[in-house]
Amino acid sequence: MQQAVAQLPWGHNLRIIQSISDRPQREWYVQAALAQGWSRQVLVHQIETQAYQRQGAAITNFEQTLPAPQAELLRDLIKDPYVLDFIMLADDAKERDLENSLIEHLQSFLLELGKGFAFVGRQYHLEVAQQDFFLDLLFYNTQLHAYVVIELKVDEFKPEYVGKMQFYLAAVDEQLKTDRDEATIGLILCKTKNGLIVEYALRDSNKPIGVAEYRVLPPELANSLPTVTQLEAELARSTFAEEPSSPDSTSRGKP
Q1: Rounded to whole angstroms, what are the CA distances from 89 to 15, 100, 189, 213, 214?
Q2: What's the Cα-to-Cα distance from 243 to each of 144, 184, 236, 238, 246, rounded to whole Å?
Q3: What topology does CATH give the domain 58-238?
Q4: pTM for this structure?
């Protein structure tokens, strides 16, 4: 079969060669670009945000709660941290603010999540014992054949987050999962975490859960960037300045 590098446009290969010297990393970006259909711009972004180093770096209990093939596939799919530099959050932002921003930029969020994620819903309603519960974000992964529950936290990880996630996963397994689906997976996205506390919290959990941090665009940096309106106005001024003067305007005022 044709080698992977020959299946990519030359511009992709050139970017990989110029940016990365390590051979395994080069091969990883080649395979990822092919598998996920990255444009050259997306490829450059993935290299700049160190996607290779982030892949599989989340703290999880997958090896203890899932069969080996699925655990390996899922471990390589979950990142840490998740780079959400397409959104900005204030220091006093609430979880709903983060959720709203992710939904507003859903396409970018899906790209960061990786291949196979399909959006099911936000604040997804579940009823248990005549009580209402709402999942922050619910996805389905077509590669894993499993539902993925994502809980958003704008503070540091706390052990009680695992107990809440276990409850949600049990409810989804009972109410949504079919015989064709694998066990539902939980992902807790936190602003910060202590690795040892996460490991202790996950140690005795019987549900597959991963914990990762996220990074957003700092407010001070976002405030220094031009808005879309400012960029459009500057582009219009540049275009107008480059237009050649008409013959009438150059001869106007001559005797």
Answers
A1: 31, 11, 15, 15, 12
A2: 55, 59, 11, 9, 9
A3: Trna Endonuclease; Chain: A, domain 1 (3.40.1350)
A4: 0.80
C-alpha 216/C-alpha 82 separation (Å) is 9
Instruction: Provide the Cα torsion 225, 106, 113, 120; round to 10°.
Output: 160
Give me 238's structure tokens.
């540049």
Residue 49: Cβ within 10 Å count: 17
Domain regions of the chain by residue span:
1-54, 58-238
**Distance (Å, whole) CA 102 – CA 84:** 8
Mean pLDDT value across the chain: 86
Q: How confident is the model at residue 65 (pLDDT cuts 50, 70, 90)?
A: very high
DSSP code for 246 = P
Strand partners, 60: 210
Q: Which residues pair with 119 in a beta bridge?
A: 139
Strand residue runs (E) in 129-169 = 131-141, 146-152
Number of other CB atoms surrounding residue 131 within 10 Å: 7
